[in-house]
User: Fold this.
Amino acid sequence: MTEQGKVHGQTFGKVPPELMHDQSITDGAVRLYAHMHWRYGENHQNYEGQRSMSSYLSVSTVTIHNRVEELEAKDWVVTIHREYNRKTGNFSTQIYHVFVSQVECREFRETYVLQEGEVLY
Assistant:
């Protein structure tokens, strides 16, 4: 028995029905959510940059930023910002947590313990 699952065939982005049918969320935000879910299935990491997401979805980084904020406000995504790394001279890419239920998102926000240099949105 294996401890870790494996994606068989092509990966794809899943969208919970509650999100897909929520008329208060824009179609673009739902597309971004599906992309973020797909990206995790593709490489098992949730720290893709907004520039890369904007390229995949053919929109500006400002649009990606606004859509992320929309998903955060509706409890579908949590973004963890990491501060500037003085050793490397680089900014660290944000970490995105994508949830299949709003309840899980809220629970995560309430229980997550921030590491040094992190800010939770």
User: Anything to note?
Assistant: The chain has five helices and five strands. The longest helix spans residues 27-43. The helical segments are 17-20, 27-43, 50-57, 61-73, 102-111. The two ends are 38 Å apart (CA to CA).
